[in-house]
Amino acid sequence: MKQSLMKIKIGTIFRVEESIRKQLFLFQKHKEISIDLYNIMQNTPQFKEIKSFIPNKYIYVKTKIQSWMLFYFYLFSDQIGLGYISKKLQEKNLYELINSRTVSVNDF
Predict the structure, then answer these.
(1) Which CA distances in Å does 64 have to 67, 69, 72?
(2) C-alpha distances out from residue 13 to 6, 8, 19, 79, 95, Å
(3) Distance (Å, rounded) from C-alpha 48 to C-alpha 6?
(4) HSE-CB for 26 with a 13 A CA cutoff
(5) Which of 4, 33, 70, 93 could form a disulfide with 83 if both were Cys (CB 3.0 to 4.6 A apart)?
(6) Is 3 a residue whose pLDDT tops 90?
């Protein structure tokens, strides 16, 4: 019983998120959210199709080389823990750590 209720809740969350993505895409493209255009949209826009209102907020890597993608993930991710060496020597991610602190390879 709990699993079916969970599936319903997750499905609702995904439908709401897709609706928000469609509305944001329409607003960015037409400077308004038209119900008619919304209703005829067949596909939900991908995240890369939705531009930010903040210029230069994100960068996109145009490579399919797995090793480079992994490198960028390790460099900028705040979920890996590479930005933490000790309580006194830590930042949000590795990029922030090496840009804002004096760090040696021996510190790791």
Answers:
(1) 9, 7, 12
(2) 11, 9, 10, 24, 33
(3) 29
(4) 19
(5) 93
(6) no
